Each structure stands twice: as C-alpha cells, then as structure tokens.
What we know:
This protein is mostly beta strands. The protein has one domain (about 25-190): Sandwich (Jelly Rolls), CATH 2.60.120. Helix content is about 0%, strand content about 50%. The chain has strands spanning about 25-30, 30-40, 45, 50-65, 65-80, 90-95, 100, 115-120, 130-140, 150-160, 165-180, 185, 200.
Amino acid sequence: xxxxxxxxxxASRLATPAFAVDGIQTFTGGAHFYKRVxxxxxxxxxxxxxxxxxxxxxxxIFVPPQTVAxxxxxxSAETRxxxxxxxxxxxxxxxxxxxxxxxxxxxxxxxxxxxxxSTDSGNATQGNWRAHAFTRHTCVRNATNxxxxxxxxxxxxxTNFGGNLPSFWVDDSALVVEMARGCSVTDKPAPDGAxxxxxxxxx
Length: 203
C-alpha cells in the first residue's frame, strides 16, 4: 500500500509507548475496571481524502488519579467502499486516543495504511456492504491527583490514486472502550506466563 498522506498529532498528556515500525508489540495489563460502548444506527457517507472524525464514534473516558491504564478500543460496523472505475482505491480508518493513533499505528508510522474496506478495483457494488471490525491499544499515564479526561475517537478517509473518489458508507457501528489497571509494552512477543511489571518497559 501507499505511504500515509496525513499524520495525526500526538497528545502531550498521552504516555507514548515504545514502538517498532512494521514490528510486533505486546501490551500487558491487569484486570479491566471500566467499559463504555457507543453505538450508532445512522447511515454515514464520507469521501474525504484527509482523516476526519467519524460522527457518533467519539467518547471521553477518565483515567483515575495516579494510575497507568491500558486502554483497549474496538470498533465494528457495516461498511461499503465503492467507485465506478478500476483504480485501486480503498477506505481507511484509524483510532486515536487524545489525538495520538493507538497501536498498531498503521496510519502514523511505517509505509502501510489500514484499509477497512476496498473498491476492489471498481468491482465493489452498491450492495457490497458487510461487517468489518478492528481493535487498537495504548498505555495512558495519569500522574496527577485528579481524573484525566481522555478522548477516544474513530477517524475515516479514502485514498485517491486517480479516477473517481471512493464513496465510504458506514452503518450500525459500535465503539467499545475498556481500561485495565497497569500497562506494560514491549516491541517483541511476550514469553508465556509473562507478568505485568516484568522485564518489559512499563509506561
């Protein structure tokens, strides 16, 4: 795929994990203590070449004082990505936490992009809607003595490599945000039986 056309800003209060471009990361946390679900049954149509907020797919969570949390975000929806020509275009999404893309950071680092759906070189039809889902993860540290507001959002865009811009159709979506106590991240697979606070770098 082609290099990312837009870069998402990093948030100053977000604990940025170590990362390996086009590599493996392992996140480890404790028990989940929080969950929020936002659903949307409205049909959405998009066609922006730059990342924009997906309507109805944003929420604010609060990390407790003096807490390091593993934030796990999942998103699912019916999608359709169509264009009336044979150009190889696709429709993309990214999940951000306080403006920084959560891992895997396919839209910020490396030469890849994250295609949720594709025009299939013009073969995708108006009846080509189907379910798609993905998850993203990050560590957030709140070193203050008050709850830290953290915005979680889904962003969407389309590619433009000639021909007609794709039409990005989204319906019946669900955004799921969970927090677990503690967060450890390494840039390699964790050994079996790995425990939080082990050899990996805690954020």
